[in-house]
């Protein structure tokens, strides 16, 4: 019958199409598994190896042709962190158990060495729910583990350097608030860590705070440096502050480094005083007198009140030095300097030019007739 023949042909064509689709699907899955970087091991329902992808062949040291039909536990040898053998998960999966394996799982390599691996295992079921086998995926994590170990060591070195640094250090969030401080900073500012965390450097500034303005400069630079006077307990401390911007991939924020420069600032003040004051009498010296005179003259030229300059020297001072000694002469100069200071107004300046010569600057003179009275 022609209709029966047509029906047989249709069935044959449909079966051919189905077989072709199955072959194409198998080829697609095989190509996909060949391209996967992780090691894929497939077993049948008797825990015998049915498939290894190229990554598994390379990692296990087995060719698929040699491993095919072998017991999975003979091909795959897993060990825990202590080196003890760990049974593969295939039998547990085939008998309804879980496929979880210990952490820090290690795979025994053909060379005798072991390598850290991550694992994932699952049963394989057919369309009717029948258990067909299992699949195990292993990932070689040696490089990642080594990178993580290097990172941990780097972080530990930074923590040690941070905590044990002789200078004050602090990590700050993007808004400048301290999120971590070291012991040296606590000693510098004479405060406990809890009194520093969540605070900004400006909160401890004595006088004008520069931090906010300096932070703006970080937009165009990796670091800024400035000097700042800070409250430290009941006193003050001068610090050289270095602020470095942290990279966004490190969490952003800033790294503060503070160096105590109080002794240097004190020495600078002493040098500045020595440069402008007479060591014997404590009066302004020639340099200070000249600077103040230039300032007052410039002000007078702008139409302010008049300025007078009185020069004084001591009669027979050399005779006192020669007859009574230089120590007596020095005492006399100190007494004269003190009395001159007491005899003038607060706004006037009494200075020593050198030797027995003194100068008095008299700003804001209303009447020239007052000058001889002051000189007398």
From TrEMBL:
It comes from the Bacteria. Residues 101-153 form the PAC domain. InterPro entries: Biofilm_reg_signaling (IPR052155), GGDEF_dom (IPR000160), Nucleotide_cyclase (IPR029787), PAC (IPR001610), PAS (IPR000014), PAS-assoc_C (IPR000700), PAS-like_dom_sf (IPR035965), PAS_4 (IPR013656). Residues 25-78, 154-199 form the PAS domain. Residues 305-376 form the GGDEF domain. This is Diguanylate cyclase. It comes from Duganella margarita. The lineage of its organism: Bacteria, Pseudomonadati, Pseudomonadota, Betaproteobacteria, Burkholderiales.
């Amino acid at each position: 019958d022609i209709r029966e023949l047509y029906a047989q042909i249709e069935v044959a064509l449909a079966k051919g199409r189905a077989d072709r689709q199955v072959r194409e699907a198998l080829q697609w899955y095989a190509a996909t598994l060949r391209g996967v970087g992780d090691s894929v091991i497939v077993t049948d329902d008797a825990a015998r190896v049915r498939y290894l992808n190229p990554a598994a062949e390379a990692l296990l040291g087995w060719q698929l042709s040699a491993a095919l039909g072998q017991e999975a536990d003979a091909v795959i040898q897993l060990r825990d962190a202590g080196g003890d053998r760990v049974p593969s998960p295939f039998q547990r999966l085939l008998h309804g158990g879980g496929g979880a394996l210990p952490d820090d799982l290690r795979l025994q390599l053909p060379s005798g060495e072991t390598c850290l691996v991550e694992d994932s295992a699952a049963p394989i079921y057919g369309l009717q729910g029948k258990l067909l086998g299992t699949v195990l995926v292993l990932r070689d994590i040696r490089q990642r583990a080594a990178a993580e170990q290097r990172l941990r060591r780097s972080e530990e070195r930074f923590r040690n350097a941070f905590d044990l640094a002789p200078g004050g250090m602090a990590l700050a969030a993007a808004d400048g608030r301290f999120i971590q401080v070291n012991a040296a900073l606590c000693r510098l500012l004479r405060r406990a860590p809890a009194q520093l965390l969540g605070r900004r450097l400006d909160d401890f500034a004595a006088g004008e705070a520069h931090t906010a303005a300096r932070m703006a400069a970080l937009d165009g630079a990796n670091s800024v440096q400035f000097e700042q006077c800070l409250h430290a307990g009941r006193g003050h401390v001068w610090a050289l502050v270095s602020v470095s911007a942290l990279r966004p991939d490190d969490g952003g924020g800033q790294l503060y480094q503070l160096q105590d420069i109080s002794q240097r600032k004190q020495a600078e003040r002493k040098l500045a005083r020595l440069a402008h004051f007479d060591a014997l009498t404590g009066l302004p010296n020639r340099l200070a007198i000249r600077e103040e005179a230039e300032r007052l003259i410039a002000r007078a030229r702008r139409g302010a009140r008049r300025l007078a300059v009185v020069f004084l020297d001591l009669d027979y001072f050399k005779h006192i030095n020669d007859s009574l000694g230089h120590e007596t002469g020095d005492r006399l100069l100190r007494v004269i300097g003190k009395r001159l200071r007491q005899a003038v107004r607060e706004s006037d300046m009494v200075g020593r030019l050198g030797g027995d010569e003194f100068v008095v600057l008299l700003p804001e003179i209303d009447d020239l007739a007052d000058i001889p009275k002051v000189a007398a």
